[in-house]
Structures are given as C-alpha cells and as structure tokens.
C-alpha cells in the first residue's frame, strides 16, 4: 500500500485521474489481507489514510466503500466471508455485492449521436468495422453518419454488441459498427462517428479550465504537453495563460499570470498540431474532459470551455 500511495506511487494518480474523468463512485478493494493475517488494525489504517486523501480529491463519504479481500484465495470476492479471522470483525458486503450496489449513471440518450472510435479493422464482408463506446444518442443499421475529422459520410451496415447481432446501440453501449461507403484509410483510432446534422467539433485550439497536480517546472506560455483525451494522445502547446483561479470558489485571483505552479487552477488556451474531435463540457460532460501529461506524469486535468479554432476555420476568435 505504501509503495503505491506515497510520493511517486500510482494509487494517488489513479484516484485523481478517476475523479477528474467524472468517476463519482469508488470501491476500494483492500487486497492481500491474508498476508497480514486478516489484521483489522492494518485494514483500518489503510482506510483512514486513503479515505482522507479521497475526500480531499473530491469524493463524498457516501460514494466510497472499502472491501477487505484476498484475490489469491478468492476470499470475500463473490461469496460471503468464510475465513474466521476476517469474519470476527468484518460483517459487510462481498466485492461483487458492493459493485451491484453502484447507482446507475444517467446516459445522454437525447443528445446528437457521438461514438469515439477505439479500434478499426477489416472484416470478411464488404465495408469495414469500427469499435467504440456510444457517448450520446443512438445508432442503428441504415443510419448515415459523419466521420470526423476526415469529414466523410458513411452508411451503417450493421451494429453488433457482445458478439451478438443488434439493430442499434445506445449511449453507454460498447458496440462494433460496420461501415460502408467510405475509405477505411480515412478512419483512425480517436476518430468520431457523429450525426451529420450536428457534427462534433474538430478543434485546433481550445480554451479550458485546468487543475494542476504535482509539477516540477512551472507552466508558462509555450509549455509543451501531451493531451490525453478519450482514446487519443496528441502533442499540444499551452498558448496563453488567461487567468489564475481560486480552486475552491472558481473566482479569478490573477489575470494573465506569468506562470502556473502545482496545486493551482487556471484558464488557459491549448493548441494542437492536428485536429482533435471534442465538445464543450457544458454540452457533453464525457466529451469535454481531458488530461495533460508530461515526462510520463499526469500534471493536470481539464474541462473544455470553448473551441477557439477548428479544422475548417483557421481564424481565431481571440487575439494574441
């Protein structure tokens, strides 16, 4: 636990990433309890340390749960506790039971169709297949869809899910969509299938609100980062530091700061080398979140506030 939780460990980073990407409910499996002879004091110590950090990261007590278990022996995973030493002090749910208690998330079924592509492959029949999660709306065989940022139209030949044929897929579903009528070479991981009448934006520059984590060097104008969004990573540049914000209230505390340091919040402008298909957070929460990394570390999480420049529109809406 200490190796993953102390400075440099990944437990902290993973928890921050999950919260920044919109995960509001968290189950912590306290594994390998058999190696400490099912010690309640050890379990309580981990829950106390991790619980304090998770609350600081933005999680609510009601949305956090902790399950002592042993993956090696299968204890407290699917069946009620049988180990006497654990049963003497733990009376709660099994891991699977607690997962089943998660509250269902509302999906944006009524918004225009969006599907972020995570894989592309050629099948045996005509056309080709793309795999991805339906972020909003729905898709069914016979639909005409727009593939961004290529700007090509395609026809949905079939929709499958879990290796079974379906006629449609809805927001939240992971589906395979067979497309015809366009060149497969124009589709990549990170491309988006969308409603031709309400296309997703192909952004070249955005304004975003970011929260900075641990950072060795201050962020200044011209700072290079790797933009992580859905299934893509793109080189990007911080082009402008608009203002620094109070992390708690969101109020502007300084306009046009010279630099941004760790544990601060700010509004910045980010420019990409290639178009990135995204949406504003206020319109599509899932498609408006991103992470910034540098040197193998996550340095910030952000929300898209406005698209300033698109692939087809090179003039900017703001001045340098």
Overall description:
Residues 9-100 form the Tr-type G domain. Belongs to the TRAFAC class translation factor GTPase superfamily. Classic translation factor GTPase family. EF-Tu/EF-1A subfamily. Residues 206-304 form the GTP-eEF1A C-terminal domain. Residues 127-194 form the Translation elongation factor EFTu-like domain. InterPro entries: EFTu-like_2, GTP-eEF1A_C, P-loop_NTPase, T_Tr_GTP-bd_dom, TRAFAC_GTPase_members, Transl_B-barrel_sf, Transl_elong_EF1A/Init_IF2_C. The chain is mainly beta and 320 residues long. It has 3 domains: 2-100, Rossmann fold (3-Layer(aba) Sandwich), CATH 3.40.50.300; 114-194, Translation factors (Elongation Factor Tu (Ef-tu), domain 3, Beta Barrel), CATH 2.40.30.10; 201-310, Beta Barrel (Elongation Factor Tu (Ef-tu), domain 3). The protein is 13% helix and 41% strand. The protein is built from 5 helices and 18 strands. The chain has helices spanning 2-5, 10-20, 40-56, 84-87, 95-100; strands spanning 26-30, 64-68, 114-121, 128-136, 138-140, 144-148, 152-161, 164-166, 168-170, 174-180, 192-194, 201-212, 224-229, 232-245, 252-255, 265-278, 289-294, 297-310. A 6-stranded antiparallel β-barrel has the order 3-4-10-7-6-11. It has a 6-stranded antiparallel β-barrel with strand order 12-16-14-13-17-18. A hairpin with a 6-residue loop joins strand 3 and strand 4. The chain is flat, with a radius of gyration of 23 Å.
Secondary structure tally: strands = 18
Q: Looking at the structure, what is the overall shape?
A: flat
Strand content: 35-45%
Backbone CA Rg: 23 Å
Total helices: the number is 5
User: What is the rounded distance between the termini?
Assistant: 47 Å
How many structurally independent domains?
Answer: 3
Classify the secondary structure makeup into a structural class: mainly beta
**CATH homologous superfamily heading of the largest domain:** Translation factors
CATH topology of the largest domain: Elongation Factor Tu (Ef-tu), domain 3
Q: According to CATH, what is the class of the largest domain?
A: Mainly Beta
Largest sheet, order of strands side by side?
3-4-10-7-6-11
Low-confidence stretches: 313-320
Helix-strand string: HHEHEHHEEEEEEEEEEEEEEEE
Instruction: Tell me, rounded to a whole number, the average pLDDT.
Output: 89
Protein name: HBS1-like protein
Domain Tr-type G: 9-100
Pfam families: GTP-eEF1A_C (PF22594), GTP_EFTU (PF00009), GTP_EFTU_D2 (PF03144)
Keywords: Cytoplasm, GTP-binding, Nucleotide-binding
